[in-house]
Amino acid sequence: MSFRHGRRYLAALIFAAGIVGPAGRAAMAGEPVTIYCSADEAFARPLLAEFTRRTGIAVRPLFDTEAGKTTGLVTRLLAERDRPRADVWWSSEIFGTLQLARASVLTPYDSPASRDLPPSMRGPQREWTAFGMRGRVIAYDPKRTPRERLPRRWVHLAQPDFKDRFAMANPVFGTTRGHMAALAALWGDDAFRRYVEGLRVNGVRIADGNAQAVLLVARGDVELCATDTDDVLVAQARGDRIAMHFPNLHAPDGSPHPGTLWIPNSVALVAGGPNPDGGKRLIDFLVSAEVEMKLAMSDSANVPVRLTLQKQLSLAGRPKKPDAGASVQDVLEAFRGSAMIDYAAAAEKLQSTDALVKSILIR
Question: Do the Cβ atoms of 230 and 295 come closer than 8 Å?
Answer without folding.
Answer: no
